[in-house]
């Protein structure tokens, strides 16, 4: 018999809901949670690294969603399979924390504490202004990421995808 | 005239700033500009028009590492405005919550951000490879602190459990007693931490600082007290604005907080320790003494030891509260909002955090002022770097840069300059 933590996916929506597009992770978490899908356990976190490590400590399969900051256009979606390669730390710059998501991934790796499978979705933000709503591009991308995450149980069931998967535009209407 | 600039760019935020620029002309430092912190004044604007009870929830989002500190300063300021004093079990529970935050914040900083500097590692991740046992000890301390905060502060029972007047829900006795076992182990781990960091090679560096902290007649300060210094300051919190001003400097968004007529000052664990050593628990005092610290310490590089002593205190104090805990009659006291100005100043892990709110007769916030510890330390940090660099100009460039980062991290600044965030640029003029 497989235990719940072995078959389910822990989904962690990361970000500060009061800072514009930093609410992207929280939106994705909400969309997945609203589907009431038994394959997923959904939590939200503010991005502090050690808390992330504690959340994924005894999990086999984990997906994290966070806003990113880079030169790509707003709404660009990134997917990283971090058990296969180091996480691109330069993208996750929107945090106020010194020890954030990329550090949590690398420290987990150094301590042999990475989950069996850890997928990170990044959504390129447009703005992190305090008190503003999500930008249209990021909201659209968040809905697309939620759609893709719902397909992850099948993906993660097979061998993990080792390549960096990057889209220039979310699928569907731009 | 030949000179050079040491530039440390910190790309921590999309909003941009974060840099240390050190200008050296010949054998002298000629300028130091430190921009590593974005003040929360955008949150001040966002708070206008909000209901008073939203202040703890909103301000908790300013800092992801010390939400409890923001909640405590906000609550105390609102309670001050409405003439409410929290006493008895609710007061003890607030101290317990702060113990949790001090523990987790200090553990993170000591182990993952600062110890690597002293041991010659680029960051905590590199250090983990050779010091796995030490790091695991640090993670355990952080986890213990986190647990206190989540049981009492929220997430497990309510997204944010703290409110003006007390709490939304008080955990059951069993949830409290579940914390005790880990805290006893954490206390041992904290003592071991003091022993560990006391052995680190430590630069000899001292300045004549004005330390400022809360002081309370009976306890090591968290939420209450008068503001005192080692140079005669002794004021109530409500007099803060008469003695401190914020200077907006041309070169950055940062606001330097200074004492009127006296200038730079120093808040945080070293200040608390120097001004309240007698109020530490016997075990914490003993641990400090065994590590070689006296009751006064003026070397900011030894702040890592003092932070570790505060972790011992936090475990001790948390256990004292848990072992004597009485359940409060109600989760919160009644609040009747009224027109007024409320002042709150509590000891965040990094030092005093000041909140002031003006409230209208509907309980809405008319304006807010928030002064975090990091902006209060900025000028002192610059002065430290100036003197430190001046005395170490013969060091190779990259050594000097690393030492400057280590010196900045003495203050555990929010948006702490973890090495990963820094791109080091050396410019020769």
Characterization of this structure:
The complex is a heterodimer of chains A (174) and B (429). Chain A is of the alpha/beta class and 174 residues long. Chain A has a single domain (4-158), classed as Rossmann fold, CATH 3.40.50.1450. Helices cover 30% and strands 21% of the residues of chain A. In chain A, β1, α2 (24-34) and β2 form a beta-alpha-beta unit. In chain A, α2 crosses α5 and α3 (49-55) crosses α4. Chain A is globular. Chain B is an alpha+beta fold and 429 residues long. Chain B has 13 helices and 14 strands. Chain B is globular and about 65 Å long.
What is the structure about, briefly put?
The complex is a heterodimer of chains A (174) and B (429). By secondary structure, chain A is of the alpha/beta class. Helix content of chain A is 30%, strand content 21%.
Question: What key phrases describe this protein's structure?
Answer:
heterodimer, A: 174 residues, alpha/beta, Rossmann fold, 30% helix, 21% strand, globular, B: 429 residues, alpha+beta, Cytochrome-c3 Hydrogenase, chain B, four-stranded antiparallel β-sheet, 13 helices, 14 strands, disordered C terminus
- Proportion of residues in β-strands of chain A: 15-25%
Second-tier CATH architecture of chain A: 3-Layer(aba) Sandwich
The multimeric state of the shown protein is heterodimer
Run of helices and strands of chain B: EEEHHHHHHEEHEEEHEEHHHEEEHHE
- Largest sheet properties of chain A: 6 strands, mixed
Query: Strand-and-helix sequence of chain A, N→C?
Result: HEHEHEEHEHHE
Structural class of chain B: alpha+beta
Q: Percent of residues of chain A in helical segments?
A: 25-40%
Biggest β-sheet strands, sense, barrel of chain B: 4 strands, antiparallel
Structural class of chain A: alpha/beta
Mean pLDDT of chain A: 83
State the low-pLDDT regions of chain A, or none. Answer: 1-5, 160-174
**Annotation, overall tally of beta strands of chain A:** 6
Unreliable spans of chain B are: 9-17, 416-429
CATH homologous superfamily label of chain A: HybD-like
